[in-house]
Design goal:
Length: 173
C-alpha cells in the first residue's frame, strides 16, 4: 500500500523477505506515515486503523475487487477505527476480525459511543456502539445480496469528516 500513498522510499527500506517484526523492520515503526496516526498511540508507532478481515468481508478475499461489492461501494466497510486498547504497530499485517458476538471484544472500547469506518468508495461512516452484532455481521458481509444499511441511528455518513492536523483521525470530531 505504501507505494500508492507516495511512500515508495519508505517501502523500499523494508526487507519484505523478513517478518514484519524482524530487527530491521521494527526500526521503521517510528517512521509511521501520518495517515495512520490516531491519538497518543501514534507516538509509539501504533495505529488504530485496521482492515476488517472476517470470513465474509471484502478484505478476506485473495484479490478484493470493486465488482465484489455486491451491495455497492458505499455499503461495504473495509477499514475501522478501533478502541485505544486495539492499537498495534502500523507495520503489523493482518487486520482485525469480528467474532459476530461481542463488538467491544473485537474492536475495543469506542469513543463517543461510535466506531468510525471507511467504506470502499472512501466515505467515512459512524456506527453506533450499541449496534446489534447481527446487523454488524450483515454490514461487513460484502456478498449477502440484499442487506443494505438503513442509514439510521446505527449507520450514518459522517458529513464534513476531516483528518486531524497530525494526519490521522481527529478524536474530537
Amino acid at each position: 500500500m505504501l507505494p500508492f500513498m507516495g511512500e515508495q522510499e519508505l517501502y523500499g527500506r523494508f526487507k519484505i523477505d523478513e517478518p514484519w517484526d524482524s530487527e530491521h523492520n521494527l526500526k521503521l515503526v517510528d517512521e509511521m506515515p501520518s495517515i495512520f496516526a490516531s491519538g497518543p498511540e501514534s507516538a509509539e508507532g501504533k495505529t488504530r486503523f485496521h482492515a476488517i478481515v472476517t470470513p465474509n468481508g471484502l478484505m478476506s478475499l485473495a484479490t478484493p475487487r470493486i465488482r465484489d461489492c455486491q451491495e455497492g461501494t458505499s455499503n461495504t466497510p473495509i477499514f475501522i477505527h478501533v478502541g485505544r486498547e486495539k492499537a498495534v504497530p502500523w507495520t503489523k499485517p493482518g487486520g482485525i476480525g469480528f467474532d459476530g458476538v461481542d463488538i467491544v471484544k473485537s474492536f475495543g472500547t469506542s469513543e463517543r459511543s461510535k466506531y468510525f469506518f471507511a467504506v470502499v468508495n472512501a466515505e467515512v461512516n459512524a456506527l453506533s456502539a450499541e449496534v446489534e452484532p447481527d446487523y454488524l455481521s450483515k454490514l461487513i458481509d460484502h456478498n449477502d445480496m440484499g442487506f443494505l444499511p438503513d442509514q439510521d441511528k446505527n449507520f450514518v455518513l459522517v458529513e464534513g469528516f476531516k483528518p486531524a492536523p497530525y494526519g490521522g483521525y481527529d478524536s474530537e470530531q
